[in-house]
Amino acid sequence: MAGRRRRRGAGRAVLAFLTAFGALAGAALAGAAPAGAVQKGVRVAPGVTYEEFDIKAAKGVAHAHVLKVDLGHPQVRVDLLYPGAVASRSQVSRMADAQGAVAGVNGDFFNITEAQHPGVEVTGASVGPAIAAGRTLKAAVPNGQRFGPALPPGTTTEDVFGVGTDGVARLDRLALDGTVRTAEARMPLGGLNQYALPVGSVGAFTSDWGSVSRVRATCGTDTDRAAPCSSDTYEVTVRDGKVVSAADTPGGGAIPAGTTVLVGREAGAQQLRKLATGEAVEVEHRLVAATDGAAYRLALGGYPVLTGGRPLPGLDDTASAVRTAVGIADSGRCMLLLALDGAAYRSGLTIAEVADTMRKLGSDDAFSLDGGGSSTLVARKAGASTVSVRNHPSGGAERAVPNGIGVFSGA
């Protein structure tokens, strides 16, 4: 009973803050799109409310859209929005409707361009680890291979926001633990469905990857995303536990269920060349959480900006941009999703301002997701069976993204 009183008290405090900000919603700014000002939290579904308000920032006024999600509500669940493959992209609204979500935001940063590697196919795959419906989809690329703003000191591409199978949200790190075994050798696995592999490693690609070329995985280095593609590569296809084919260059096309494609670069390629057709090979992989005993239903990458109610040291306080973020309140039982209007309509926030905003909204921990043209927040309106885009994305239209956080309602 005392726990329930604390949760209700925390919820009232957050709602009071949002209502105060809501009174400022729709402030007139040159070029601002109509905000459709909301003066108080509007129910989207049981345990899910939506609100919008202005934030006075160092470089102007930002307009924020916020979803408050009660993770302890029996009709609420959350999961990863994604288009069915790691190396694929879709709009947040389309993914939400396809999966039956009532609300959601865009997720992780991703491989958006390959200007430094002419002729190499852009994968669209996300930077960090990803778990959907409790199933591991991918691991994190090396820090130097990520897209997006510089990471705050002490953070890595393995950092995740996740919601456990216990329904509790938390920040964590997910590291890949994988092995390739043969009768003669044991090789560590350096990647799983990643657009970039560590130098000298072997990576595994499964049916979750999709049909996009795997060449990008051998380009760049651990510290330089723009470095040339490796000239020493090798690929082995393992089906039903045996080597069935090999190639000097990574290929593309859909990978059938029960098949794993191993891609090696440099020392990893040299190890794969030792495998013969018909040889038995066992590939194992899992993501290991830094938090003991944590099992996740949903996890995706980005980077932390607030922990234990305190901003991370060294957060950038000069570069203002459109942002998306997720906050955790009420001991992990409340999730706050925030997205700003696009740069053509309002000002942005610095990362330091994002941390401060999420703290004022009641978050103890907060996590930055992809921003800029990717920032999108969707939610169903009363009586609707599909979601509507609630913020005003940069460029006036939704960008296709690799994943997002989906909010679902139902028994």
Question: What's the topology here?
Answer:
Elements: H1 2-22, E1 42-45, E2 48-57, E3 60-70, E4 76-81, H2 92-99, E5 103-106, E6 130-132, E7 135-138, E8 159-164, E9 169-181, E10 186-188, E11 191-192, E12 202-205, E13 233-239, E14 242-247, E15 259-265, H3 267-272, E16 282-289, E17 296-301, E18 303-307, E19 310-311, E20 324-329, E21 334-340, H4 351-360, E22 365-369, E23 377-380, E24 387-389, E25 404-409
3D structure, described in words:
This protein has helices at 2-22, 92-99, 267-272, 351-360; strands at residues 42-45, 48-57, 60-70, 76-81, 103-106, 130-132, 135-138, 159-164, 169-181, 186-188, 191-192, 202-205, 233-239, 242-247, 259-265, 282-289, 296-301, 303-307, 310-311, 324-329, 334-340, 365-369, 377-380, 387-389, 404-409. It is mostly beta strands and 411 residues long. Residues 1-39 have low confidence and may be disordered.
Helix content: 10-25%
Mean pLDDT: 92
Shape: globular
Distance between the termini: 23 Å
Number of E-type strands: 25
User: What amount of the residues lies in strands?
Assistant: 25-35%
Strand order of the largest sheet: 1-2-3-21-20-22-18-19
Output the number of helix runs: 4
Q: Let me know the largest β-sheet.
A: 8 strands, antiparallel
Class computed from helices, strands and strand pairing = mainly beta
What is the H/E order?
Answer: HEEEEHEEEEEEEEEEEHEEEEEEHEEEE
Low-confidence stretches: 1-39
**Rg calc:** 22 Å
